[in-house]
Amino acid sequence: MLTIRQYGDPVLKQATKDVEEIDGTVAKLVDGMVESMYAAPGVGLAANQVGVQRRLFVYDIGDGPRAIINPRIVESSGEWTFEEGCLSVPGLSWEIVRPKQVHLVGLSMDGDEVSIEADEYEARVFQHEVDHLDGTLLLERLNDDQRREALKILRARALAS
Question: Is there a domain that residue 1 lies in?
Answer without folding.
Answer: no
